[in-house]
């Protein structure tokens, strides 16, 4: 091979080498830019998300943010002797003696927020062929923390306090209850306990609050009909309720939450366990599983009648009787599971006696008053 050929061959080899090296560098450069543009962004987002989660855990703000952002007849001293003018009785407060934010804004939690209406202690009551299972009348104690939204409203008697009504935690400073539990009393006469399953002892996560004030529905009439039996209580103190495995808020329904008859729900409280014995009051929290009943059934003349059962009410229970809420359960929540979260669909209100055939328990329909409830929370 002469010099001229060798020279041309060398030039060709050199060109091929330079071309290959250039493509390799270009490919490496593109790969490096893709990694630089993708990975850091992901890492930053993850860090920010982690920071947000940490901040929410520290401040507790995530627990009470509402994405919608809309946010009694008193008994005689001896027992059930006073009724409403239209007949029937409230599930009146229990008189044990026979004889009232860290954040600047407070929002009510709804089922859209996954941290409300959750419980870490599983408790399910048998629900077969509409047969009674756990009962408030008859007694069925529940595991501690199984109903973490339950509030115990107690009245002061000297240095002691005695169970009066139930309520539902709906936020760090707010309790939802029945209007008839509050009419005729002053905020200073109450203490509210949460995480209090056993009334005679102090439970591990028990918290006690004085009452700052409340708003009773303006159209509720003591001694009148049973309509508008709803109220919101504001607790004293800046910190409010501390959430734990045994203490947390229930969700509130939205305007679109379905009330489907046959839906199984739970009612809980410390009311009497024997309708014939008002001295028999349970020490531990009781619960019952009850199905929602259709409005047409409740309005039937053989049941409650249209004059007494209004649009702001919902009834639940067994037409054969035997299972019901009763005296001392007033104000407590009727909770139903909606999309994986427990919603307060009802407030224990009234009934014609307790656990009698064709006389199911009647509850204030929370959804019917949801705008008023949200407004009251914002104004308290």
From TrEMBL:
Q: Which GO terms describe its biological process?
A: proteolysis
Cellular location(s):
Secreted
Q: Which Gene3D superfamilies match?
A: Trypsin-like serine proteases (2.40.10.10)
Chaperone keyword on record: no
Query: What is an example of a GO molecular function annotated in this UniProt entry?
Result: serine-type endopeptidase activity
The record's keywords, sorted A to Z, are: Disulfide bond, Hydrolase, Protease, Secreted, Serine protease, Signal
Peptidase S1 domain location is: 136-378
Q: Name one GO cellular component term.
A: extracellular space
- Pfam families, A to Z: Trypsin
**Span of the signal peptide:** 1-24
For bias type Basic and acidic residues, the affected ranges are: 25-37, 45-56
Domain of life of the native organism: Eukaryota
Renumbered to this chain, region (Disordered) spans 25-56
SMART domains to which the protein is assigned, alphabetical? Tryp_SPc
Q: Major place of localization?
A: secreted
Q: What is this protein called?
A: Serine protease 30
Q: Which organism is it from?
A: Hyalella azteca
Q: What is the lineage of its organism?
A: Eukaryota, Metazoa, Ecdysozoa, Arthropoda, Crustacea
Give the encoding gene's name. Answer: LOC108673095
């Amino acid at each position: 091979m002469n010099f001229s050929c060798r020279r041309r061959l060398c030039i060709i080899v050199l060109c091929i080498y330079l071309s290959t090296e250039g493509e390799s560098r270009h490919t490496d450069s593109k790969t490096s830019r893709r990694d630089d543009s993708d990975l850091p962004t992901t890492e930053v987002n993850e860090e920010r998300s982690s920071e947000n989660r940490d901040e929410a855990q520290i401040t507790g703000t995530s627990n009470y943010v509402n994405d919608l952002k809309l946010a009694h007849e008193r008994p005689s001293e001896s027992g059930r002797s006073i009724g409403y003018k239209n007949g029937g009785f409230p599930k009146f407060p229990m008189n044990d003696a026979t004889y009232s934010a860290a954040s600047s804004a407070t929002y009510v939690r709804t089922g859209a927020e996954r941290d409300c209406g959750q419980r870490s202690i599983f408790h399910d009551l048998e629900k077969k062929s509409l047969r009674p299972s756990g009962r408030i009348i008859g007694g069925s104690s529940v595991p501690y923390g199984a109903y973490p939204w339950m509030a115990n409203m107690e009245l002061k008697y000297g240095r002691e306090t005695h169970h009066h009504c139930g309520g539902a935690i709906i936020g760090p400073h707010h309790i939802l209850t029945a209007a008839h539990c509050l009419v005729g009393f002053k905020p200073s006469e109450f203490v509210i306990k949460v995480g209090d399953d056993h009334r005679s002892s102090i439970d591990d996560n028990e918290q006690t609050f004085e009452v700052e004030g409340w708003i009773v529905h303006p159209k509720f009439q003591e001694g009148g009909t049973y309509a508008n039996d709803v109220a919101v209580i504001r607790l004293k103190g800046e910190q409010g309720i501390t959430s734990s495995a045994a203490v947390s808020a229930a969700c509130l329904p939205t305007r679109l939450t379905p009330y489907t008859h046959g839906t199984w729900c739970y009612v809980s409280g410390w009311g009497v366990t024997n309708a014939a014995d008002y001295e028999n009051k349970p020490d531990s929290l009781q619960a019952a599983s009850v199905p929602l009943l259709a409005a047409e059934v409740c309005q039937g003349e053989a049941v409650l009648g249209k004059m007494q059962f209004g649009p702001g009410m919902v009834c639940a229970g067994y037409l054969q009787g035997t299972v019901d809420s009763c005296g001392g359960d007033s104000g407590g929540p009727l909770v139903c599971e909606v999309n994986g979260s427990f919603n307060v669909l009802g407030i224990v209100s009234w009934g014609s006696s307790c656990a009698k055939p064709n006389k199911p328990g009647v509850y204030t329909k929370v959804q019917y008053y949801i705008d008023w409830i949200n407004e009251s929370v914002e104004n308290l």
